[in-house]
Amino acid sequence: MVARGVHALQVEGYAMHARHGAEATQVDEHADSLSASDRFAVEALAREMGAELALVTELYERELAQLQASAKVRGFLSVLTGRKVRMVLRAHRSAHNSRHESRIHA
Description:
mainly alpha; about 110 residues
C-alpha cells in the first residue's frame, strides 16, 4: 500500500516509493554512499528525465551496486549506471503513456 503523497513505481522488478517535493534540489539522505560525481549524475538524470530525485537516486544506487559486484574495470561505472537508469525511466514513461493513450481511445 502506498501512503498519500507518495509516488509508487514498479519497473523491471523494482518497487520504489519517492516522496513528492522532498527532493527538489539535493539528493536525499539515501545518497550518502554516492560519490560527488555520482550525486551530480543522479541530479542531472532527474532533471533530464523529469523524474523525482529520490526515485532516480534509488534506481542509480541499485544499478551501481549490481555493476560494482561484477566490474573488473570501474572507470566507467557511472556512465553505464546512468545509461541503465535512463533506459528504465524511459521504459516506465513509455508504458505509462501507452496505458494513458489506451484509456483515451477506449
